[in-house]
Design a protein that fits this description.
By secondary structure, the protein is mostly helical. It has four helices and no strands.
Length: 104
């Protein structure tokens, strides 16, 4: 169950990172409230996951999920560049996440 919590925490991490863009500097009420809610949910579910997963592994996977998801959504939602080197680096992060899951 801890890995499920960690995955959910990572999804909330993506949600608040993307949400920051929509808050427009915290001037938009609804996106700001949703973003802050996602921040809180992300940290709470991360805390639940870390009851069983080592901190180094859990934190690295949590930020990795957030990084990969945010980078991919940046490409999709905000027309950020999808260069070969950028996609390769995202792939390296995914490999790292898989490796940590296998040994953690």
């Amino acid at each position: 169950m801890a890995w499920t919590y960690l995955f959910i925490a990572g999804l909330f991490e993506i949600g608040w990172a993307i949400g920051l863009k929509y808050t427009e500097g915290y001037t938009k009420l609804v996106p700001t409230v949703l973003t802050i809610g996602a921040m809180i949910a992300s940290v709470i579910t991360l805390g639940w996951a870390l009851k069983e997963i080592p901190i180094g592994t859990g934190y690295a996977v949590w930020t990795g999920i957030g990084t990969v998801g945010t980078a991919i959504l940046g490409i999709i939602l905000f027309a950020e560049p999808a260069t070969a080197i950028r996609l390769a680096c995202i792939g390296l992060i995914v490999v790292g996440i898989i490796g940590l899951k296998m040994v953690g």
